[in-house]
Amino acid sequence: MYACLFVPDFPVQAALLLEPRDTRELLRRSPMAILDGPGNLPKVVALNDVARNTGFEVGMTKLQAETCGGVLLRKRSPDHEDAAQAALLECAEAFSPRVESTCHGTVILDLAGTEKLFGSLETVGCKITVSARQIGLHLRIAVAANPDTAMYAALGFAGITIISNGDETKMLAPLPVGILPASPELLEVLESWGIRTFKALASLPSIALTERLGQQGLELQKLAQGRTSRPLRPVEPIPDFFGTHEFEDPIETLELLVFDLNRVLKEICDRLVAESLATNELRLTLSLEVRQIRDGKEGEQYQHNWKLPVPTQDRHMLFTLLRLDLERNTFSAPIKKLTIEAVPIKPRMAQGNLFAPPSPEAEKLETTLARVRGVVGSMDAEGISCVGSPMIPNTHNPGAFAVQSFSSAVEHQAQPAIVPTLTLRIFRPALETSVELTGEAPHFVRLWKKHRRVLAASGPWCSSGNWWNETTAWAREEWDVALKAFEGVVYCRLYLDRIRKRWFVEGVFD
Amino acid sequence: MAYVELHARSAFTFLEGASLPESLAYTAAQLQSPAMALLDRDGVYGAPRFHMAAKEYGIKAHIGAEISIAESGNLPVLVESRAGYQNLCRLITTAKLRTKKNAIATSRFDELHDAAEGLICLTGDENGPLAHALQKGGMEEGRRVIRQLISIFGSANVYVELQRHANRFQESRNQAAISLAKERGLPLMATNGVRYATPTEREIADVFTCLKNKCRLENAGRLLSENSQRYVRSSREMEYLFADLPEAIANTTEVSSRLDFTLEQLGYEFPRYLVPGGETMDSFLRKRTWEGARHRYQPITERVRQQLDKELALIEKLKLAGYFLIVWDLIRFCQKNGILVQGRGSAANSAVCYSLSITAVDPIALNLLFERFLSEERGEWPDIDLDLASGDEREKVIQYVYERYGKRGAAMTANVCTYRGGSASREMGKVLGFDEDTLASVSKIVGTWEWRDPNDTGEKQFRSAGLDVAHPQIAKYLDLCQRVQNLPRHLSQHSGGMVICQGQLDSVVPLEPATMADRVVLQWDKDDCADLGLIKVDLLGLGMMAVLKDSIELIRNHYHEEVDLAHLPQDSPDIYDTICKADTIGMFQIESRAQMASLPRNHPTLFKDLTAQVALIRPGPITGNMTNPYLKRRQGKEPVTYEHPLLIPVLESTYGVPIYQEQLLVMAKVCANITGGQAEELRRSMSHKRSRERMQAMDEMLLNGMMNNGIPRKNSENILNQIKSFALYGFPQSHAASFALIAYASAFLKVRYLAAFTAALLNNQPMGFYHPATIVKDAQRHGLRVKPADVTRSEWKCSLESDDQGQIVLRVGLSYVRGLQQLAGEAVILQRLKAPFCSVEELARRVPQLSRANLAMLARIGALNNLVDDRKMHRRDALWQVECATHRVGPLLEGISEARVSSPLSPMNIEERLVSDYHGTGLTVGPHPMAYRRDTLTAMGIIAAEQLKKSMDGAWVTVAGHVIVRQRPGTAKGMIFLTLEDETGNANVIVSPQFYDENRMVVVRERFVRISGKVQNQENVVHLMARSIAPLAVSAVTASSHDFH
Prior knowledge:
The structure holds two protein chains of two kinds.
Chain A: E1 2-6, H1 10-16, H2 21-28, E2 32-36, E3 43-47, H3 49-54, H4 62-68, E4 72-75, H5 78-93, E5 99-103, E6 106-110, H6 115-118, H7 121-135, E7 140-144, H8 147-156, E8 160-162, H9 168-172, H10 184-192, H11 198-202, H12 206-225, E9 242-251, H13 254-274, E10 278-289, E11 299-312, H14 315-327, E12 335-345, H15 362-376, E13 389-391, E14 402-404, E15 424-433, E16 435-438, E17 441-447, E18 450-465, E19 474-485, E20 488-497, E21 502-509
Parallel strand pairs in A: 2-4, 7-8
Antiparallel strand pairs in A: 1-6, 1-7, 2-3, 5-6, 9-12, 10-11, 10-12, 13-14, 15-21, 16-17, 17-18, 18-19, 19-20, 20-21
Chain B: E1 5-8, H1 21-30, E2 35-41, H2 47-57, E3 60-69, E4 73-79, H3 82-97, H4 109-115, E5 119-122, H5 129-153, E6 158-162, H6 168-184, E7 188-190, H7 202-213, H8 217-220, H9 235-241, H10 246-258, H11 281-296, H12 302-317, H13 321-336, E8 341-344, H14 351-355, E9 384-389, H15 392-405, E10 410-418, H16 421-432, H17 436-445, H18 458-464, H19 472-484, E11 488-500, E12 511-513, E13 520-525, H20 526-531, E14 536-542, H21 543-559, H22 573-580, H23 593-602, H24 607-616, H25 619-623, H26 627-634, H27 648-651, H28 661-672, H29 676-685, H30 692-708, H31 713-726, H32 733-752, H33 754-763, H34 772-781, E15 786-787, E16 799-802, E17 808-811, H35 822-834, H36 840-846, H37 852-860, H38 875-885, H39 910-921, H40 934-939, H41 945-949, E18 956-967, E19 976-982, E20 985-991, H42 993-998, H43 1000-1005, E21 1008-1018, E22 1021-1031, E23 1042-1044
Parallel strand pairs in B: 1-2, 2-3, 5-6, 6-7, 9-14, 10-13, 15-17, 18-23, 20-22
Antiparallel strand pairs in B: 3-4, 4-5, 8-9, 10-11, 11-14, 12-13, 16-17, 18-19, 18-21, 19-20, 21-22
Helix pairs in contact in B: 1-2, 3-4, 5-6, 11-12, 11-13, 16-17, 16-19, 21-32, 21-33, 22-32, 24-32, 28-29, 28-31, 30-31, 32-33, 33-34, 36-38, 37-38
């Protein structure tokens, strides 16, 4: 037998889980709605019964819900929902080792062989209900001989429903066909036939139904009759791709570290190979010994993540990546413990494109990039990646640029030929400055701690954009100027940020 | 040194300009610019409005255009002379006519050669030919293009254009252009490539760019403009920008002085009518008029003779004989081809038009004012509108005009579609990235009623749709919606206005293909044409004319009687009895709520009463508070008084109350001694383009005139108010009479031949005030039997057939089946004629044009119930078979399926049948949805519409029904009129503005409602004043209402 645990109004219950128990029970009796959608127009996506009975509806905008008043509005949080689903799974796992996480708010568990532990099916149902209430979830439970029947019964009936083997069709009869996984077109056909309940669908002649609606119709009928049989897809414990080594004495040399590093990495890679998995993300954590304890800190950690362009099981490549990174770092204290975690993923099975331009192997490219990062660093002061292909985003904003990761699979697009004129060395970030004006043109500019006279100026060159969004709107007025300097003339580019009303030196011409 | 902007683009370069031509002209005038040139892309769409506005603001309007050249960008050209203008129009026309609608029409350099005379060319902006050449092949290619332009236009007529929009790349291009100009000794010209009047309108330009490229602002990137520099700049700003090139500024003034041409010198001429040898157009017209008069007036009295002589003399004097003959020629074409036609409008004031059979109303018998039609002083073309049956017959007449005057000699006038509440909110929302549901709810709620409540602001409407206007992005959304209002969106063709021209129309205005095949449309709308003195003939499609024509045919075929509309029995009491009872659903002009409310009080018994009735319910008389006094005086409840004895002869026939436009003009004539022409000028001064100064001048003239006639000041002011209140929105008597003729004919046919009239009405939808569902229910209440659509009996259109008792019944046509294409419907009929169908499977096999959805829809509405001879299927039997017939089974299942005619499905219940009927055909021939709930409704204390009519004044009652009409007329001070329909008839409900504010969603959205309130029963005109409203769960039918916005 299978039991399905269904959490009605799951987003609402998930949001309530965070509340303290007393508040939660109080809130459960008040109208509550969950909002989701873009920031400028959030809409109600879920409600509890109290809100529904008060006249609130899914699809209302936040303003409409607020105007009606008296409803508690919460923003939808995928994290909260994940946490609630985890809690639901945990609750189910207390009663059976085989639990399927069907979807958010629904789990199905295999009750075979649990009678001796928990008693009759009714008793199990009650115990699950009590257990779920303790963690703050109000459930509908249905028990049946197959997972689908249990699921539809839980969706359709409140409380605890036990369906004996052979009673499926009779018990499911009053349920609406709308809850079946049918396409809108098929549901429209059923509606036009006047087939609105499981009973009506179950009683149609099967061959005639198949003639008209094909295999999909037959499948739906079986579901409506409670005659399906499918294996449960239990949640499997995620294999552990995690390795750690605690040094007897904190170590200070890289040679000692890489020895154990290599060993731990080998164990993880062996496990990946055994599970026919690979990794595309590797996380390294080094716990450091702190000799002086300051501000209550007992230790420090060094952490680094590698995101790989392609999944790999190659221990040597991963080891090279780690070693290159460690080589360019110095640590403030000896290392006490090392931890490596690999995020598992299915290995790459596809063959490379026969017609793509030749490019280095992804693994080799990644190693090379790691070497480059070792030289230039990985991020600049503005948080922009230092290694990758520079890219000009689609905007008129002259200062905007982005860096996209190198990828061997990136298609090389023909870029318009850029005719070199003058080279502008850009300061990133731009140097804020003060400018004295004559008319609207700069007359004196402060650069490198000195006021410098403008010998010649060309401008203003104006640009602006994103006027529809207060936060991202920008407007600037550029001037190319020749400044008098001790050693001669300096040519540079200034700009006035018209929104912040501040002047900057953007760069210097060679 | 003055600067003249010679390269401005308006919003008539659709989605590439952001300001109206008027706003550009206004801004230029504000900046004290002496002139400006409007250069829209491939057209002179905005030129008339620009010209009129410039005239008003005292600046000179230069005309030009940007010509799209294949692979070379847009070449700006300025019109120097009339020859140049004609060349430009022909050039654009040639390119447009060989290109499909909405595609970019490009000209070739060789065509420019032929059209260069009288044009000055600029080398263009970043999209111009020089910029294209420089980008493509550098200086060398630039030189080649310059040489090419010089060879086409001559070196004196090529100016190297420079624009400065604070852009480095543009400046480097400018430097290249300057050096090329120096090489060839060409003059420079500074322009600002204006795309909007003020910098803030750059936002609208960006929004339009997104709409054009079908993207959102967020991802439009470099498609958007880089800055806001393309606005109308002052001379000072331009001089500062071009301080290094003063000659580029000076040349703008010089070129401006060379541009002699304005739209005043359009050179339009109406075509001459070809007359037989030895005749002039005047003599020919005279002969045709007297011929006609002999037929129309029997006998020709002295008064008729004098009137015709007077009219013919004036026509001759104004050289309008050709115009009359051309219209006469159209009428003759219609008569020869059996096409129903009738002139309307002020033409009905002319005895000549009546004699030529252009109109059907005798102006002499009705004492109509000829000056309203034609006046010597007015110096304007007369306006003749012809009503034709809409559809194929009207198209025949239009094609006859093209055939006779050539594709380039005649064209339909355009209709400029502008951004309004709904379209603005939808498109602005799309650009800002709002989802479809939100856009739908906003466009639904954004008020587009005819009445605009001053408190019903955009902000309030947005709030009603659930949008928080405090959020900056929503505030921006609202702001854009408001700013984009009235900007042109696209050009469509006017419903019937045609302009014809002596010589070629394409030298007066560019022509382009319309979306409809074989139609050519000109680039100006009817107001522009009128402003520039282009004469148009309106060939208007009048749905009721088609109904009358179709009715006559049905009567001939099924009643075996011949009805001659020209000789209908006049003043039949049974017809007027029906009209007096306001039992007028489907009748022309007298079926609206307001008409129905006044009919019992007006109690028309003669044709002239009906004419008055048509004129009475118009915005003019209503807002001028003339309707009620007229009705009261007619009923004898109020004494007939006059503001002054001078008005007695003018207003005697209408109880001292002016209801016709002519009466106002005569009032002005007799009281203030103004001439006929001045009276007409008065009417025009109060038209929709009214100008405050002109109005004031007219007021003074009238008041002085009245004072001179000894009319006391107070009476003078009353008379003036009467004149002003409805000069625009009143009907001329002639027009009302023309309409009353059609109204009477429609009433006659409905009363005497209900089946034929109803079938014709249903076959010419959409038209009138009511949905087909209401028309059918009304006909059923009058005893007509209506049968449902049936594939074994129905024609494509609604038809008549005889039942077993020999009575004529109406059969709903297959055209009413939702989603069924005419081709498929006609294929069903064709196959049925060959051999009857025996099963759904056979129908599906023999008519492959029927899709699965078509068959399912036919089954759902019961149109397949009679398909099998031996037994009547129910709808679900048919649906069951449809699914089998449209899904071919494999060989495995073939032969083992059950008998095809039976199904395991239950028949539809009443509610399901109703839902299917409304969903599938928009109507039901069975009982009204409310009829099924009558017992419950009665138990709830809800009375039927029939009972409401008998309720006492002041009684408190509750009615319920399907909302069939929602109306908020501009004349009713914000009141909303709802019409509820139940099985017994219609109930009229009035909703006050405050009540509407409190119950907006229910009033606007609900299909079935229950309304309680106080009865207002005045002289058998019964309304319910709504005090509470609630949705009513009657049925899930999707019947729609007719909401007048």
